[in-house]
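ESCALATION

Customer reports they have been waiting on this structure for their group meeting. Please prioritize. Original submission:
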Amino acid sequence: KGGLWLYRGTGNTSAPFLARTSIGYGWNIYNSIVGTADLTGDGKADLIARDSKGGLWLYRGTGNTSAPFLARTSIGYGWNIYNSLI
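Update from on-call: job pushed to the front of the queue and completed.
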């Protein structure tokens, strides 16, 4: 339950994505998840997630498809006042 999947791009418009890769399960603890651009300046796409208590979490991208994100880092709390992260 709560599976999150990565769809890597190919750069080919006729077949834009490779087969999905499992990032893991348990992501249903979040009420909003946004795949972002590179927020940390390391050249890798990052992920932001918000939990039901308003905690906002950063998952730094690794560039490795078998382990695409590092452990989460807290950005802060109080983000549940917003309807959406995008």
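Sent to customer with the following note: The first strand starts at residue 4 and ends at 6.
Escalation resolved.
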